[in-house]
Structures are given as structure tokens and as C-alpha cells.
Amino acid sequence: MCGIAGIIHKGRDGDVGAEMTSMLQAMKHRGPDSTGYALYGQPSDLLVMRFKLANPNETNDFDFDERLEVSRREVEERLNKIGATVDRMEGESQYAYRATFRYEGDLKPLTDYVEDVPGAEVLSLGHSLEIIKDLGDAETVSEQYRLGGFRGTHAIGHVRMATESDVDIAGAHPYWAYPFSDVAVVHNGQLTNYHQWRRRLERNGHRFQSECDSEIIAVYIAERLSDGLSLETAMKQSLQDLDGVFTYLVVTDDSLGVAKDEMAAKPLVLYESDEMVALASEEMAIRAIINHEIDTYDPYESEVLVWTR
Q1: What's this model's pTM, rounded to 2 decimal places?
Q2: Annotated active-site residue in 2, 125, 138, 225
């Protein structure tokens, strides 16, 4: 049992870091093992890369600090070697970093080159997307990464209960749609044709960081966007191609979408006003950020909805 949430402000910025924390913390009972955010600030001409150089269970290794510093310097040197002008690189935790830089080339060789550094894993890359995920509940992760002050237009989040894999960051959602800029997904459910689609996407040159089917959905959607489809059309096509029981949220640089399979067995509650849209696995998550009476509803079977910031 996991929980998903999304929020988008219409035509303005909001405190999406604090809002998503409140929504996810309200669903802590659905997933106490890890918490993840995909936050969208105002688009910048700089690329933002979130990456990690180790896992939490490595922090007590006797050579951890020295090894981490060597890897951090190597990442910065590699970015410089391929023509990226690093604006800033800062540690967000003992093992996770945020870098901003100028780069005009293809994101795939850039990401692959960075991930050749021992322990390096790129969590997100884009002009507005930032994925932050770690072990613990939402308040713990938010405090660790100082997300309370993050302002932006839209966000999605996930609380995870590890039922089929280890409790680690690799299994935490959201997932970036490598190597496509600014696309991420969270989902609740299971794809029954996961292996078929993974093989098909791998034949198209994509690689995956995890065994999670949410990552398949992210790359599937992003590939179709790159082919010129609209987000709504790509999501409607996904309901024909992806088998299983699922509800997923997808975000791009300017949009938030939700899709439910034909059985609509996985819960999702939706609230919409003139100023914002909020969605979550449970209504209590939406009520955590709205202090007045609200009306909510459940999207229908096979329904696709998309909003633009």
C-alpha cells in the first residue's frame, strides 16, 4: 500500500514544498519507508541536476567521507569536460547533491558520463524539475532537504511501503523519465506487462535505474511526447498499451496529468478550484492543505485529465 499526491497552481507560484509535505505526511500510514517529491520551480536557462553518490546505509563506512569527496570532484570535472559550465554544486545530505549548470547538448550522454562515476545516480535533470527522495516520512525528508521554502507551480509526491523490494532510495518514487528533460511519474498499482514494455523500451536505447514499473510509465510517456504527441493523447494511448491495475500522476515542465485504468480500483480523490488542483490517494491529504469546506470526487474508469500551470 502506497500513497500518491499532486498539486498544481493555476497561473501563479505556490509553496509546493510545504504543501506536498503536508499532503504526504497525512498519508504516512500508507508508506512509512520512504518519501519522494518531484517539484517544479519556474523554468530557468540553467539545468538542474539532482544526484546521489552513495546510499544511506553506506554513511558509516570508514572511508565514506573521503570516497564521497573524490566522487563529487569527479562529477564536477566530468561536467566541465563536456562543456557544462557549473554554476553551483552543493550537498543536500551526506550523499545527495544538487548542481546547476549551463549545457546545450543531449542529456543522455551527459547523464551516462556522470553515472560512470562510482556510486553516482542521476535522480532528475531539467530546467524546472527537481526530484528529492529519501528514507523516512515526509517531515523527515523535507527537513533534511530544506523543502519548506521551495516555491513553484506544481508537484507530485509519493509515500512508499516496501513490499517487494528493499527499503532504499533506488526503490523510492518519483522516477525521472531518463533521458527526457522535466518529465516524472508516481503511480499506485502494478503493470502486468512490465517486462514486455521494459524490453521494448530498452531496444529503443533507454536504460532503467530500478525494477519499478513507475519508471516504465515515465519513459513511455516521455518517448511519446518526444514523438510530438500531446500529454493527454500520450496518456490515453498508455491506457491501451499498459495492462494492469493502476492510477498514475505524470508531470512535465508545465502540466500535471492523472490516468486511471479501466477498472479504477486504485483510489484517487480530486479537488479543483479556480486557483488550484489537488489530488491524492486519500481525501485527508487534500484537507491537510485547505482550511475550508471542499467538494471532491473520484475520476472515472479509463479517465485521463490534464491541467496546465
Answers
A1: 0.94
A2: 2
